[in-house]
Automatic annotation (TrEMBL), chain A:
Enzyme Commission code: 6.3.5.7
Protein name: Glutamyl-tRNA(Gln) amidotransferase subunit A
Active site: K78 (charge relay system), S158 (charge relay system), S182 (acyl-ester intermediate)
Family assignment from sequence similarity: Belongs to the amidase family. GatA subfamily.
Domain Amidase, residue spans: 24-469
Species of the source: Acidocella aquatica
Function: Allows the formation of correctly charged Gln-tRNA(Gln) through the transamidation of misacylated Glu-tRNA(Gln) in organisms which lack glutaminyl-tRNA synthetase. The reaction takes place in the presence of glutamine and ATP through an activated gamma-phospho-Glu-tRNA(Gln).
A Pfam cross-reference name: Amidase
Source organism, top-level taxon: Bacteria
InterPro entries: Amidase (IPR000120), Amidase_CS (IPR020556), Amidase_dom (IPR023631), AS_sf (IPR036928), GatA (IPR004412)
Keyword Transmembrane: no
Keywords: ATP-binding, Ligase, Nucleotide-binding, Protein biosynthesis
Subunit architecture: Heterotrimer of A, B and C subunits.
Record keyword GTP-binding present: no
UniProtKB/TrEMBL annotation, chain B:
Assembly behavior: Heterotrimer of A, B and C subunits.
UniProt family annotation: Belongs to the GatC family.
Record-listed E.C. numbers: 6.3.5.-
Catalytic activity: L-aspartyl-tRNA(Asn) + L-glutamine + ATP + H2O = L-asparaginyl-tRNA(Asn) + L-glutamate + ADP + phosphate + 2 H(+); L-glutamyl-tRNA(Gln) + L-glutamine + ATP + H2O = L-glutaminyl-tRNA(Gln) + L-glutamate + ADP + phosphate + H(+)
rRNA-binding recorded as keyword: no
Annotated function: Allows the formation of correctly charged Asn-tRNA(Asn) or Gln-tRNA(Gln) through the transamidation of misacylated Asp-tRNA(Asn) or Glu-tRNA(Gln) in organisms which lack either or both of asparaginyl-tRNA or glutaminyl-tRNA synthetases. The reaction takes place in the presence of glutamine and ATP through an activated phospho-Asp-tRNA(Asn) or phospho-Glu-tRNA(Gln).
Protein name (record): Aspartyl/glutamyl-tRNA(Asn/Gln) amidotransferase subunit C
SUPFAM superfamilies: Glu-tRNAGln amidotransferase C subunit
InterPro entries: Asp/Glu-ADT_sf_sub_c (IPR036113), GatC (IPR003837)
Keywords: ATP-binding, Ligase, Nucleotide-binding, Protein biosynthesis
TrEMBL record, chain C:
Alphabetical keyword list: ATP-binding, Ligase, Nucleotide-binding, Protein biosynthesis
Pfam families named in the record: GatB_N, GatB_Yqey
InterPro entries: Asn/Gln-tRNA_amidoTrfase_suB/E (IPR017959), Asn/Gln-tRNA_Trfase_suB/E_cat (IPR006075), Asn/Gln_amidotransferase (IPR018027), Asn/Gln_tRNA_amidoTrase-B-like (IPR003789), GatB (IPR004413), GatB_C_1 (IPR042114), GatB_Yqey_C_2 (IPR023168), Gln-tRNA_amidoTrfase_suB_CS (IPR017958)
Catalytically driven reaction(s): L-aspartyl-tRNA(Asn) + L-glutamine + ATP + H2O = L-asparaginyl-tRNA(Asn) + L-glutamate + ADP + phosphate + 2 H(+); L-glutamyl-tRNA(Gln) + L-glutamine + ATP + H2O = L-glutaminyl-tRNA(Gln) + L-glutamate + ADP + phosphate + H(+)
Gene3D superfamilies: 1.10.10.410, GatB domain, N-terminal subdomain
Native organism: Acidocella aquatica
Coiled-coil stretches: none
Family listed: Belongs to the GatB/GatE family. GatB subfamily.
Assembly and binders: Heterotrimer of A, B and C subunits.
Gene: gatB
Protein name per Swiss-Prot or TrEMBL: Aspartyl/glutamyl-tRNA(Asn/Gln) amidotransferase subunit B
Signal peptide: none
Top-level EC class as recorded in UniProt: ligase
Amino acid sequence: MSLLNLTIAQASAALAAKKFSAVELTAAHNAAIAALNPRLNAYITTTPELALAQAQAADARIAAGTATPLTGIPLAIKDLFCTAGVRTTAASKILEPFIPPYESTVTRQLLEAGTICLGKANLDEFAMGSSNITSGYGPVENPWKRNGSDAKLVPGGSSGGSAAAVAARLALGATGTDTGGSIRQPASFTGLAGIKPTYGRCSRYGIVAFASSLDQAGPMARTVEDCAILLGAMAGFDPHDSTSAERAVPDFTAATGRGVKGLRIGIPAEYRMDGMSGEISALWEKGVAWLREQGAEIVDISLPHTKYGLAVYYIVAPAEASSNLARYDGVRFGKRVDGEDLIDMYERTRAAGFGPEVKRRIMIGTYVLSHGYYDAYYLKAQKVRNLILRDFNNAFEKVDAILTPTAPSAAFGLGEKMDDPVTMYLNDVFTVPASLAGVPAMSIPAGLSAEGLPLGLQVIGKHFDEETVFAVSAALERAAGFTALPSVRAE
Amino acid sequence: MSLDSATVRRIAKLARIRVDDAEVGVLQTELNAILGYVDQLNEVNVEGVAPLSGGAQMAMRLREDLVTDGEQAENILANAPDRVGQFFAVPKVVE
Amino acid sequence: MAYSLEGKTGTWEVVCGLEIHAQVISESKLFSGASATYGGAPNAHVSFVDAGFPGMLPVINRECVAQAVRTGLGLKAQINLVSRFDRKNYFYADLPNGYQISQFDHPIVGTGDVEIELQDGTIKHIGITRLHLEQDAGKSMHDQHASKSVIDLNRAGVALMEIVSEPDIRSPEEAGAYLRKIRQILRYLGTCDGNMEEGSMRADVNVSVRKAGEDFRTRCEIKNVNSVRFVMHAVEAEALRQIEVWESGGEVRQETRLYDPARGETRSMRSKEDAHDYRYFPEPDLLPLVLEEEFVARLKAKLPELPDEKRRRFCDEYAIPFYDAGVLVAEQATADFYESVAKGRDARLVANWISGDFFAAMNRTGRSIENPPVSGAALGELIDLISDKTINGRIAKDVFEEMVETGAMPGAIVEAKGLRQVTDTSAIDAAVTQVLAANPDKVAEYKSGKDKLFGFFVGQVMKAMQGKGNPALVNEAVKAQLG
């Protein structure tokens, strides 16, 4: 039995049945990482000894009968989650030496459930990107290849390392964060399931902030059920985060079995954009058919401000980021470049520590907040953001969930879409509106492109109604029967 | 609206990022492309629409006034690039 | 008479408004659970939130909110049931996040009103524009190391209230009176200790000058002035500087300045100029602060009596002059002490004793109202001894000094030293006879019209009786015997 090609649910059952130990499971993953990570660069930092120690504790817990469904499950942790005693870089050179003395709430809850940390997964620097090429620690290679081609493709971003690790069988699941699509788009590019829960469902405490009003943690895994199991442990109220919702965590796993009979599924006209590839719209049609066949009612809806989502996002997110990243000044943590005086030290430290995309976004964010431009850009964007929220609220009076494609294309090649920043930003066109509205949204692998690359569909739900999102996603997953595997993977 | 190079330099100064002359030109082009893209928001009629600043739609919770943190100067200073005793240290500031 | 300054081109009026930063009394910081206590080893009262570590988030302290509301109520101000926090962005070594969490356009408290009293007894109203909550920064020290500045974040994140006045202040005296009044109100409310030396209260002073009837001219802001006296000096120094600029044909530039107490002048802080684009925007880590009406009502119900109301009540209830009442209510503890002694006694006599001998003894012995030179009970007993004529006022002063020195109760002192007042008229008559007999020349002078000598005879009689004679009876007897 391969210890790598399992779902979390399968591994959990096997661990409980003592078919193998957590130590064996972890050692197999450690070995797979040692073999493949030098090529894929999915992890910035690996923690094999820590993982084995945690696996031993997990085995003891399983033996003692106090295990949870996640005890002994090896995970990749996006290197945006602060992990006590384990270097946390946010894929930025400016945090190269940073070892947090504290644990993020989400990873603490996962550790308490008994998961194993295999290492810190690569990402776009400070989660700013859609391809993982902005990482200060090198790009991540997508384990998937186009038919008959060995060209390197991007895994998507920003949670590209998490996506590549899970797809290439270097972890059973991973944590990601999603600000404008950073879980859903890489999930779509690597044939995984991934959910961005409702804003406020998972604590942001201890997650390096990119854009505070948008950032949400969520799981990435091979199945919808695995995501449900992971989210169950990651979610929950945290008094350390003022934006954390004081709500009980529902049984997400149970929700995956609900089915879609009688559910009303909205199909937004505005997502049918000019230039959308034929295979993406065909897949979308297929998704509609699958849900209809399982008893859902399909409803045409309108989300009129969809096309403005990206423009709003590329004002709001950089504005918040420009402020959130002011703390990287070489004074209390991270890397410092000496200067003649304090200001010189700041400017040299930040010039050397931040990569070009981060600098671009800080600059844009600083500009749109600056005197004389605030109203024209930031305030305007906030108002349009409200209109986007209203669009969703209006739609959800008529439907229970919304179905769209996750991304406008399959994974693209390293070096493509680099002409100018805007071309790259267009990747997020379908994922950004749900982020702006704060509603939950999930990507599930639904098929392959003509070139043999995975394509994802996105299910968007009402605030705090992840259960319906899981129910619809699981129904699509069952119908799609996606079983393809990436060509680069550990066996 | 479009940025001139002096504005790019001013913004870089505000953001405390050193940029050299070559970077100013590149940034100017890139930032103008982004600003050009977001200008489409001018099409949207937002009359009477309140700005939405946060992702969460609830009122703020208040914490009780208890001392639950602190007394860990070593942890606070452990990552400091430079320190003098129990203080963080920076190049001398002349006021 | 209104304050004005004479220049070469005529008379100038001073226009001034204050932004007072008052440290909120609370156990922990505004957005973290670290101690808000002053002092401590460097970086001891610091959480990762205060130090701006990656992923750290602010969570607001209920008590700091309550303190701001209490203060707003004390300033007779509008309480805004919905307010919001914003980030004020700038880089400085002691500002860990690179931004200060403050309230920009939706403060927790809106317009209010404060009454000040001037030397000549005039009452003037100063408008309050707003009060908002914000975090304090840490402290940079530049003299601890030859080539480095060092940073202590113990203050970083401590709650401050910024109280902004309208430009209603027209003189250094008014500026001083306003600052003192705000400090008094905050101390009464228990929302700020008002200790300017430790920096728990400091003021930014906005000053401009104008000719009569003009609109406001350009103002300058003098940052971080840390005593009432310095505020008063700074207003005058800055006004004089501006008058000179205008009168020499120049233009006052809007800028931030610093007051130098050693030189008694203000100077420009040009270094801060380029950092003036604060890029305020709503703090996305916090939600709107929404207060329940009931929360405010509960705080209002428990608000202590404030100095203005107390002063008026003292005048009515104890029939003491307005000025004296002002002295007694200056500090809440003094007012409480006064009331504890005055209840059921001659309240006016008690007021005189406290503002006279009692304060003098307190200053002389370096004690405080919390640790008084004589207890309220002891002072009350002394007053009783005066009122029931056991001792006279003259003896009472001696007894009081004895009380301060030994801590003994007045009754015991009177008994032990035999200081009871003599009301026996035959003893008094005898003493008067004796004194008149000993001073025949003075008696002759008196009788030839030198009325002033009456006091001399009374004094001599009292002296002969070791001060114990009942003053009224002594007066009577002297008058009778002198014919």
